[in-house]
């Protein structure tokens, strides 16, 4: 007899069923991208408005990204305890509330605090969204679906860039407030739409809510037109974890997998966020006006949409590890060449476009891969901790980048150091973590067994 998980993962894909969850989850991801990208456009405007030093300008992105780091930890853990659906909606509501307040900040200190709070809400979107979408996706196309999820990122980043560029004629003292307010209405509408999504049946089964899990599974079978089959659900009591015990759980599950996940997240996202947070300022420093600097950054994010499309194809053809292992270092090399040729006119835009394209081949597969490495009770928190560690590192990166690395080391050497870190991470991944292509979510090469704290792999 099949399990409920197998029934869900063998269902035919229907855009009106799983596709609806994909779109709603992806829109939340789009707002995450919009908000992170906004930091880069806000930095030069706020720097002029409040006459900020280079170090203070770094805090524009740092406050927001650190809030996201805390949110990823807290909401990943909450989602494993209270359910994907409720956490799914609350995160976006918190983000919308503090974004409105941030637009009316009377001084820089309060602005940083409110951006931290907005980041706290939005930081929970990625781990919650990926856990939910992955648990509804058929196994045969799960890699494509999760990789395609990242397509919402360059879309959100590009919309942010288009809005920022379109607002250039408005006085900078008012423009930054309008930028913050611009995305509030769509965020609230998405919060309303999210109320109608079902809870993950895999989560319901894992925490012992068998009857509710069967209701969701039976509804999915009926709506997708699949054959009705008998299936079993092994109801298990919920595993209650604090943030600290959750960290212990993912490390107890597998130190090698968790270390590889964290290294990949930190190195690749550090490379991306360093470019994203400072690119408008870098281009302005080279003599570009606001319109050209904002448009150049928008080009970098826009070509990423094509990168995600390529990523969604390669992830099931080549496999997760190969795509990450090749595209991550190439993206870093493109950024180094951008920095070296910064004074060579059109070459700047060429290498900026190459970086934007290739990095968005790596990131979707990274998100897909890490979300598949953990079993259901640890999936949201395992992904959330990896994401939060990267947010902490990238949160301090704008501060370190703007006040130390860029002024002292220069752009080429700075980007070369981060690229070397990416190479180190993919080499460790090649040794320490298994390939997950085509596997059931709770079945890895090394197997696993339940422990008191969650799941941990058997020895080989």
UniProtKB/TrEMBL annotation:
Keyword Transferase: no
Membrane topology, record value: Multi-pass membrane protein
Ranges annotated as spanning the membrane: 21-46, 58-75, 87-104, 110-132, 152-170, 176-193, 262-279, 291-315, 322-342, 348-370, 382-402, 408-431
Pfam families: Sugar_tr (PF00083)
Cellular compartment(s): Cell membrane
Residues covered by the Major facilitator superfamily (MFS) profile domain: 21-437
Keyword Acyltransferase: no
PROSITE patterns named among the record's database cross-references: MFS, SUGAR_TRANSPORT_1
Entry keyword set: Membrane, Transmembrane, Transmembrane helix, Transport
PANTHER family: SYNAPTIC VESICLE GLYCOPROTEIN 2
The protein's name: MFS transporter
Organism name: Rhodococcus sovatensis
